[in-house]
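Input (structure):
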């Protein structure tokens, strides 16, 4: 090969070679992205704390009294959260009501006992129960129609909807009927939306 051909081949190879990656610029982009993600999570946490501060007028949740009577119904499943009654996107986070968890529900003559491993337990006295219905969603959780048991109860001067999903969804209808029977002003026909 002649020197002219070698030089042409070298020039062609030089035009086709990839740019050298600048490691410093890549590291700067990665660090910037990590800082941005951390900032977004910090903003989300601040929003959660702010919502809790707005709801601090909600009284403390009652604890279950000692010596509850024998239960009518019991269920294990998931607690998906609580909202202001009728407003399925207005999540209540005060006193741990916004924390999703496993749940063990027990319905007795005295009321509804909500035991949540890893979160605050609470008790809803029978006089505070306003009704139950099957629904498809509550803040942060949407299921098929009738896939969620929503219990409406009064706490302080506020009506609250709490969403539960049983490990066995066929149990939901019995819960709606039993909770609505505890409140004579509710009819079963009006319990489902």
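Output (sequence):
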């Amino acid at each position: 090969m002649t020197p002219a051909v070698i030089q042409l081949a070298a020039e062609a190879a030089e035009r086709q070679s990839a740019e050298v990656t600048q490691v410093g610029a890549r590291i700067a982009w990665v660090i910037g992205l990590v800082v941005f993600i951390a900032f977004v999570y910090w903003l989300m946490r601040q929003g959660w704390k702010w919502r809790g501060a707005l709801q601090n007028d909600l009284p403390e949740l009652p604890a279950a009294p000692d010596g509850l009577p024998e239960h009518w119904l019991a269920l294990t499943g998931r607690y998906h959260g609580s909202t202001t009654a009728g407003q399925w996107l207005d999540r209540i986070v005060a006193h741990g009501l916004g924390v999703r968890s496993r749940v063990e529900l027990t319905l007795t003559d005295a009321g509804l006992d909500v035991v949540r491993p890893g979160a605050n337990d609470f008790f809803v006295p029978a006089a505070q129960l306003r009704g139950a219905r099957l629904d498809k969603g509550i803040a942060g959780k949407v299921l098929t129609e009738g896939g969620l048991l929503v219990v409406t109860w009064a706490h302080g001067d506020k009506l609250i909807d709490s969403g539960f999903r049983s490990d066995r969804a066929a149990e939901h209808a019995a819960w709606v009927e039993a909770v609505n029977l505890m409140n004579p002003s509710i009819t079963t026909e009006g319990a489902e939306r």
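Notes: The mean pLDDT is 83. The helical segments are 3-16, 23-54, 172-182.
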